[in-house]
Amino acid sequence: MSYGKSVLAFEEFGFRPGKVERVVRETSKMVSVYIKLHLPNLPRPGQFLMIWVPDAEEVPMSVSGAGRRWVRISVLGRGKTTSKIQKLRRGDLVGVRGPFGRGFSLKGKSHLLVGGGSGVAALIYASKTISDQKKECVFLIGAKTSSELPFLREVKRLNQKLLMATEDGSAGYKGVVTDLVEPILIKKDFDSVMTCGPEKMMVKTVELALKHGVRVQASLERYMKCGFGVCGSCVLDPVGLRVCTDGPVFDGRILLQTDFGKFKRDAAGRRRPI
Amino acid sequence: MSRLTVKLGKLVLPNPVMLASGILSHGSLLEKALREGAGAVVTKSLTLKGRKGYETPVVVGVEEGLVNAVGLANPGYKDFLKNDLQMIKEKNRVIVSIAGDGPDEFVKIASSAEDAGIAAVELNLSCPHVKKHGLEIGKDPKLVRRIVKDTRGVLKIPVHVKMGFCDELIRSSLVAEDAGADAVVAINTLPAMVIDVYSRKPILSRICGGLSGPAIHPIALRCVYELYRELSIPVIGCGGVKDWQTATEFLLAGAKAVQVGSAVAIKGLKVFSEITEGLAKYLKEYGFESVDILMGSLEGKK
Ligand SMILES: Cc1cc2nc3c(=O)[nH]c(=O)nc-3n(C[C@H](O)[C@H](O)[C@H](O)COP(=O)(O)OP(=O)(O)OC[C@H]3O[C@@H](n4cnc5c(N)ncnc54)[C@H](O)[C@@H]3O)c2cc1C
Ligand SMILES: Cc1cc2nc3c(=O)[nH]c(=O)nc-3n(C[C@H](O)[C@H](O)[C@H](O)COP(=O)(O)O)c2cc1C
Ligand code: FES
Fold first, then answer.
1. Phi/psi at B58 (5° precision)
2. What does pTM read for this prediction?
3. Which residue among A135, B10, B122, B294 is least enclosed by CB atoms within 10 Å?
C-alpha cells in the first residue's frame, strides 16, 4: 500500500480484518474503538477509513489516533451502523479499508482547530501530530452540553490551549463554538485554521478565517458508497470534486465556490438542502 | 480533424475514449471527465423513479478488478435531467444510459432525454429485469427486439444497446441491429461474488454482484472480436481498459470506441488523457491516419 503513488492497485479497495482491542466511552454520545491493524505508513491527519461491521453497513470514519499497529476511530451514535460500532467489544472483528483521502496540510507554526460533533475525531489526531512536531495549536471544541465535550483530557495532556463552548453554558463559553473564532483570530496570529464538524459551523469558520486573511482547511463528511472515487456519491457540486479522493480536506477558498453548507447528495444522489 | 476523431453514426466525437456508465455518475463529475479528456460520457443507468441502491458495502476491490452491486442508485431520470445534465456544458457529448422495467419505461425515459438535448441513449439490456425475476433482458431476444424497436421508433438520436456476456450475446445483438440499434456496447460486468473469510460472510450486501476491471478484459475483447465479425453497426468495447494498450486492443479487434470504468479508481481522471495521448502516438508511429483505419485491422484474422 502506498498512498503517495499515482497508481493504486485494486486490492487496496478490499477489506482487511481489524480486531477490536479496546472500546472507550468518550462522552455520553461518543465511543472510541481501538482496532489492531498493521499499516505500513501512519495515516495522515484528516484521512479516513471505511469500516464494515458484518451485520450492518460500511461507513466512513476519520482516523482519531494511530500507531504502528493500531488505529482509533471515535464514533457518534447516529443510526444503525454507528450504534452497532458503539456496541463492539474487545475481540470483535470489523472489515477495514483505507486510509483514504487527502489529509490536512500541517504547514505553518501555529494552528487554530475548530471542531464540533464527530468532527473533533479528525482534529484530535491532527492536534497530536502538531504537538509531536512541537508546533503551537489552540483547540476550540463546541457541543450542546458539557457531557458531550470529547477529548478534554487528551488535549490537556498534549499541553495545548483549549477553549470550550456549550450551548447551555454548562462548560466554558455559553453559545456556539464559532462565536469564539473571531475574538481569537483578532488576539493571536495563526498560520492556519483547520475545521471539522457540522457544515454550517465550518462555513462560518471558513468565512471568518478568510476575512482575517488566514489560510483555512475544512474536512467534510458527505454520504459515501465506495470511498475510493468510482461511484460519485460524495460529489461536491458544481465543481465536480469527490470528497473521498479529492478531499475530505479542502482549502476554504475552493469550498466557497461549491455547494458547501448549502446542498448535499443523499444515497440516491438527490440534492438535499443542508 | 485529428486522427482521434471518430464518427459513431451521426455522433462525432473528438476521441474514442468514453467514460462507462455508473462511474462518477453525477453531472458535475461527468463534466469534469469531459474536461479531463473523455470523448463522451455515459450517465449512470437512470430509472423511472429514484433509487437509493443497496446497503453498503456495494463495491469491493479484488485482484485486478472490482466487484459491485450498487443497485442502480440514481436520483431518477427527471431529477437527473433537471439538475445533473445542467451541470454539463456540451450535452452533445452526453450519452444517457437507461435501465427500464419494460419497453414503455425505456421509451419514456429516452424521449425525455432526447428532449433535454443529449447525444445518444444507451439501453442497459444487461441489468436484471425485475418483472422477469432477475433474468437479464439481453438473454431474451424477443424482449430485446421490442425494447429497441419501440425506442428507435420514437427517437431521432442514436440508440446504443449495452450487452452483458451471455450465451445469447451474438443472437441478441443481431436482433438489436435488426430492430434498428445504432451501436452495441460490450460488455457489462460478469457475475461474481466475494467472501470475507474472517466473518464467513459475503461482503456485498446483495451477496452477488458483477466483476469489472482488467480481470475481464480478455473476455470482453473476445466478445468485441466476435461481434465485429457478425454485425454491421459499430461496436463499442468496454471491460478492463486501463491504458492505451488495452484500448488499442479493443480497436484492433474491431471496436470503434471504448469505454473506461474501473480504471478511474486506480488512475483517477487523468486516465482519459493518458489513453488518448498514447493512442495518438501509436496511430502516428504506425502510420494510421484515423481510428477507422486501425479499427479491425488485426493481422491474420478470419
Ligand atoms: C470522511 C468522513 C469521516 C467521518 N468521520 C466520522 C467520525 O470520525 N466519527 C463519526 O461519528 N462519524 C463520522 N462520519 C459520519 C459517519 O460516517 C456517519 O455518521 C455514519 O455513516 C452514519 O451511519 P449510520 O448507519 O449509523 O446512520 P444512518 O441511520 O444510516 O444515517 C444517519 C446519517 O448519517 C449519514 N450517513 C449515513 N450513511 C453514510 C455513509 N455511508 N457515508 C457518510 N454519511 C453517512 C447521513 O447523513 C445520514 O442522514 C464521517 C463521514 C465521512 C464522510
Ligand atoms: C461501481 C460500478 C457501477 C456500475 N454501474 C453501471 C450502470 O449503472 N449501468 C451500466 O450499464 N453499467 C454499470 N457498470 C458497468 C460498467 O459500465 C462497465 O460495463 C464495467 O465496469 C466494465 O468496464 P470496466 O472494466 O472498465 O470497469 C458499473 C460498474 C461499476 C464498477
Ligand atoms: S464515495 Fe464513491 S466516489 Fe466518493
1. -115, -10
2. 0.95
3. B10
